[in-house]
Amino acid sequence: MASSERTDKAAGSTTTAASSGTISAPDSKPSAAAPSAANTSAQSSASAATSHAVTSAGAGADQTAATGISGVRSRQRGQGEDPIDTSGPEAPAPTLDSLRVSCLMNSRYHASREAFLDTVHRWFMFAVIALGTAAVINVLPPEMFGFPVANITSKVFAACTGIIAALDLTFDLSNRARTHAMMKRRYFELIADVIENKRTLIEASACLNRYSADEEPAYHTLLISSWNDAQEMVYGDEADHYEIPARHLRFKNVWRYIGENYPLSHGPNLRPATL
């Protein structure tokens, strides 16, 4: 009984396999029906087609990946990694607003430098005059707790007078302040000439380049701060501005901060009043 059931199952499995297009031999016995030449040719064609499809799909995937990478790089180049040279005949023509920003930035920069240098110069001159006056020393008592205050103070005051006067002469504070005042006036006169149609925008742009030859090495943070102010003067609350740390603003007239890069924020202008 069990033997006949196994025979029936084997026959059923063979029939099912044959109906599905493949022939399998149960229990490692040789197949009773060999595949025909037509079936063999069809299987070879299907295998070749499958192999060609897989190969084509792989090549297409590689090509798509390469195109995707180059597309990303192209977009990155367009976003500023490899900026396009816009100098020469294809350079954009200057506008009145851009010229106003440049002139106001430079005039603001020179006004700040003039005010700082002139203020320091005046304080130095006050210290030289005050410390070099004998009447100041006479106010102090000759001795205090057995310590010769007047004698030591006179020597200290004399040394400070010489040092401060030497600093003022070495850094040439007064003449440098006058130079900045002259440069400030040149930029204001330039923008006035453009408004009065005495100069074209191209001529004014060329003048800016000529003026740059007379500039001293810039204090970077002060220049960026002046650009922020000029942008706000021209464009109002919609102006772009650089975010400058407060500690840099405190020493913008003392330290040059060469090489500092500040993040640029686009309008509207929401800068906190940290100045």
Give the helix level as a range of percent. 55-70%
Total helical elements: 9
Integer-rounded radius of gyration: 43 Å
Mean pLDDT: 73
Q: Got a strand count?
A: 2
What proportion of the residues form beta strands (DSSP E)?
under 5%
| Adjacency order of strands in the biggest sheet | 1-2
Q: Any overview of this molecule?
A:
It is a single chain. It is built from nine helices and two strands, in the order H-H-H-H-H-H-H-H-E-H-E. With 275 residues, it is mainly alpha-helical. Among the domains are: 96-216, no CATH class; 220-275, no CATH class. Helix 6 runs antiparallel to helix 7. The longest helix has 45 residues, at 37-81.
List the helices and strands and how they pair.
Elements lengths: L1 H18 L17 H45 L14 H36 L2 H6 L9 H23 L1 H23 L5 H12 L7 H16 L5 E2 L3 H5 L13 E2 L10
Helix pairs in contact: 3-5, 3-6, 3-7, 3-8, 6-7
Summarize this, please?
By secondary structure, the chain is mostly helical.
Summary tags:
275 residues, mainly alpha, 9 helices, 67% helix, disordered N terminus
